[in-house]
TrEMBL record:
Provenance organism: Onchocerca flexuosa
TM spans (from-to): none
Keywords: Nucleus
UniProt name for this protein: Metallo-beta-lactamase domain-containing protein
Keyword hit for Cell wall biogenesis/degradation: no
GO cellular component, as recorded: integrator complex
Length: 366
């Protein structure tokens, strides 16, 4: 472009025009190149099988199967193959639209690129041009589709099976089992998480299939939960910054700290989104029948509130819990755990909303 051609060369007065300096960055005028992962200690002709866990791993597959003497088989789930092919084709379409002439690679000498203000994060001598469409098609013909939990024997040496991981569409974790050992269950000790949070169903085999111990996660530092449970996770890392969505900031109400007047505190609620080590608190867009409330519900105060709202009821006690029955509303309200838990039951949504408003009068909104 005209903007690029007007930039000063790097180094100054250099005869070659492929390097230009823009501020604290040195730009290279040349074809696109990528840096695939290096497997220096392994020869691809000795690899019998490649297990692809997700579509992102499929993008780099041609660098390992094409022009490397690879004669093995690649295993992947069908959704991984289809989604990976789609992204690979889009990348090739993008690179086809960018025309760059092949320049000399003398700038890849360490003495030169190590002098850049923006030193490359990897060795440019290991960069390679992106694969062609023919190489992509040849690579994908080597992929054998497998279904989840399907056992596949590899040359009689091992048996593999793919289990859904939930990372992306078609993604999986692989269980590799030989005659004497099973690989992958030992991944937790290697990762050594300080706390493993998982559903209670993975803590012990189900009553229906008690022999299926492969679904049990054995790890000491773990916390289990049931659907709807609320629990606290102790902080095991340094304090991190959390981005606040603009809609979350609208309801913020700061109050002073009792020790430091220059610090403001506010209670916020929302959905914490974590991606690429970035934390962001987004507003909870799900519709709720009632707000989150805190406090202890006193049966006498609740009865007075119902009287003021002209709601007829009958009151009794069952197993230490107070029950309010509303015949006209076809509804029942239970006050449990000494007033710290309230259950409203009614087939009619409007009646549940009405009784929720009565409870809200007696409690504080969070």
């Amino acid at each position: 472009s005209k903007l690029f051609s007007n930039l000063p060369t790097y180094p100054k007065n250099a005869p070659k025009q492929c390097l230009k300096r823009y501020g604290e960055h040195v730009l290279v005028d040349g074809p696109f190149e990528v840096h695939p992962a290096q497997i220096c200690s392994t020869s691809m002709d000795s690899v019998d099988a490649i297990l692809v866990s997700n579509w992102m791993s499929l993008l780099a597959l041609p660098f390992f199967t094409e022009e490397t003497n690879f004669t093995g088989v690649v295993y992947a789930t069908d959704p991984t193959l289809q989604l990976g092919r789609l992204v690979m084709e889009e990348l090739l379409d993008f690179f086809d639209r960018v025309d760059r002439e092949e320049r000399d690679h003398s700038w890849k000498k360490p003495a030169l690129f190590m002098s850049f203000p923006n030193i490359p994060t990897s060795d440019p001598r290991e960069w390679r041009p992106f694969y062609s469409r023919e190489q992509m098609e040849s690579c994908l013909t080597k992929v054998q589709r497998v279904s989840f939990r399907e056992s596949v024997n590899i040359h009689g040496a091992a048996t593999i099976a793919a289990y859904s991981s939930g990372y992306s569409i078609g993604s999986c974790n692989w269980i590799v089992q030989t005659e004497h050992e099973k690989l992958n269950p030992s991944i937790l000790p290697d990762l050594a998480p300080k706390l493993l949070v998982m559903p209670e169903m993975y803590a012990q085999p189900s009553l229906i299939s008690s022999q299926r111990t492969e679904f049990v996660v054995n790890y000491n530092a773990r916390a289990t939960f049931r659907y709807g449970d609320t629990f606290m996770i102790p902080s095991t890392t340094k304090t991190k910054r959390v981005r606040l969505h603009p809609d979350t900031l609208r309801g913020i109400e700061l109050r002073g700290h009792h020790d430091q007047n220059d610090i403001g505190l506010s209670a916020l609620k929302g959905v914490l989104s974590v991606y690429d080590n970035i934390l962001e608190l987004n507003p909870d867009m799900r519709a709720k029948i009632r707000n989150s409330l805190v406090g202890k519900l006193d049966p006498e105060i609740f009865a007075e509130t119902l009287t003021k709202m002209n709601l007829k009821y009958s009151q009794d006690e069952i197993n230490g819990n107070i029950r309010f029955t509303f015949d006209t509303l076809d509804a029942v309200v239970y006050i449990e755990n000494g007033g710290f838990r309230t259950v409203i039951r009614s087939p009619n949504r409007e009646n549940r909303q009405l009784l929720s408003e009565a409870v809200a009068v007696c409690l504080k909104t969070l």
